[in-house]
Amino acid sequence: GYKKVLEENRKLYNQVQDLKGNIRVYCRIRPFLPGQANRLNPVEDVDERTIEISATSKNGKGKKSFTFNKVFGPSAKQEEVFADTQPLIRSVLDGYNVCIFAYGQTGSGKTHTMTGPKELTQESMGVNYRALNDLFLITEQRKDTISYDISVQMIEIYNEQVRDLLATDGGNKKLEIRNNTANGINVPNANLQTVKSPLDVINLMNLGHKNRAVGSTAMNDRSSRSHSCLTVHVQGRDLTSGAVLRGCMHLVDLAGSERLDKTEAVGDRLKEAQHINKSLSALGDVIASLAQKQTHVPYRNSKLTQLLQDSLGGQAKTLMFVHISPEYDALGETLSTLKFAERVSTVELGAARTNKDNTDVKELKEQIASLKAALARKE
Ligand code: ADP
Ligand code: MG
């Protein structure tokens, strides 16, 4: 009866979702910051899936539009951004591997999205904190049927070297990456810390941020030239059957994607820029080949893609937050960021968009809800 129809519908719903692929790209536009003088704004969020860039070129004024799975305008709150990320995060508890990236030029809001501003409040907390809080909440709800262990690692990749941000000894040892390990832990020598509460997470993240700042000065902000990755390992044990399931989530604040100014392109800066270039293009290549369902995926081209290999592709779910600065001065970088997004996206960008899939999903969702209600009345 109802149950069977409900099951059928759910199958269909999952199929429609699968068609859409496991790669999502969200675009977030940073607001103008207090005191910013240049208010000429070439970026406009048209609706919740489209942005428009107006550019003046030799050939006159033109507009180009880009479509994403979701667009967050300058006034979007951290809470809203998280709400659209939540289902992905929750799937870790069901044994999925998940990768969430923040991409964009320095100053475009990557750290704001993932962590939040320096002075954290409940309201300004970024995805990382909210994700862990959410995981604690659900494991508590499920505690009579499944017993979960949650542990975290925090590492940094700088100049193609992996460093432990939770090391208590400064973390200057270089770490090795292993893939396809039995326990799913691919940086076995990085500190792995069990967390039991949001406070544990805050303390660890503070330690990680402190360690990350080591070696940087005001003139030399290393955090914009390294990738940082918070990895959450989840292990759940079914209390009746004893079956164990593992999930893993990487929350990655990428190095700034800006191209180096020609005048700066010497010495250490040049070396850093080359490493960043190499790893971001390797990441782009991997996600693009997954989006296009190619058989060969080039994971081995950078430490970043090696680190994330087990969580990109297959059944894993990927979300890329692409960050845009609103200023006219940033236009060149904005366009190059959008070009990157275009490559990794399964959404056809710039083309006339169809809402058919969305309509199908929406209708099926409504049907599921009404069948559920009917079922509840029957029982
Ligand atoms: P990135 O990590 O990409 O270099 P940040 O996250 O540090 O950029 O953002 C640069 C500045 O802009 C910071 O002062 C940050 O607090 C502010 N900022 C970024 N995004 C937002 C936002 N959505 N709302 C308010 N302030 C933001
Ligand atoms: Mg940052």
UniProtKB/TrEMBL annotation:
Q: Any transmembrane segments, and where?
A: none
Task: Give every Kinesin motor domain span.
Answer: 22-347
Tell me which residues bind ATP: G104, Q105, T106, G107, S108, G109, K110, T111
Give the signal peptide as a residue range, or say none if absent. none
Family statement: Belongs to the TRAFAC class myosin-kinesin ATPase superfamily. Kinesin family. KIN-14 subfamily.
Q: What is this protein called?
A: Kinesin-like protein KIN-14I
Give the species this sequence originates from: Sesamum indicum
